[in-house]
From TrEMBL:
Coiled-coil annotated spans: 108-199
Main location: nucleus
Protein origin, superkingdom: Eukaryota
Protein name (database record): Protein MIS12 homolog
GO cellular component: MIS12/MIND type complex; nucleus
Matches recorded under Pfam families: Mis12
Gene: Mis12
InterPro entries linked: Centromere_Mis12
Amino acid sequence: MSVNPMAYEAQFFGFTPQTCMLRIYIAFQDYLFEMMLVVESVILKKLDGFPGCKISPSQIRKSTEKFLLFMKEHFDKLFSTMEEVLLQLVLNIPENVLLPEDRVHEQYPYTKEQFQALQEEIQQLQQQYKAEASAGQALRAELEEQNAVRAELEKVLQWFDGLDNICREHGTSNFKESFAFLTQNSKKLKDVLKDVEKKSNKMKKHDRLL
């Protein structure tokens, strides 16, 4: 069998010419084996009509195998010649023939150096794309963080607006005065809480005595 890869022919036919020739070879060989079995069976039937014949079936099988070996050797020689002719004249695409899908290479020819430079440029663009994608992901993460901070700031602003409204309701418009007012109220609330806790403890003791 030919060792030439014939990749261009495989692109055109959809299969390698060597694979085609191998299948033809196997098909012919199988047909030869089947034919010899048929011949052997016919000989055995003919011998059944001659009771005095001293040729045994095993001798016929040996003779059939020898004849099959002889036929196979000649077949291999003939097939080798046929394969060479088919691969050169039938399954071969001449060098001056260009497939339709490859005509773009004829319109835009590239040397090996130009192709290498193009490959390097593609790699650089891929790396640049990956870097930009990574930077974009980092920016999106930062934007999400900023949105979260903005939401918290809006809550603080709302709290200050509510605080300002409360202070105005109590007649304090100055921010420092507002904080002083809140501090005083906070102390009052703490005192009230302590008083409530004392009374609660007294009530618990009284309940225990009862």
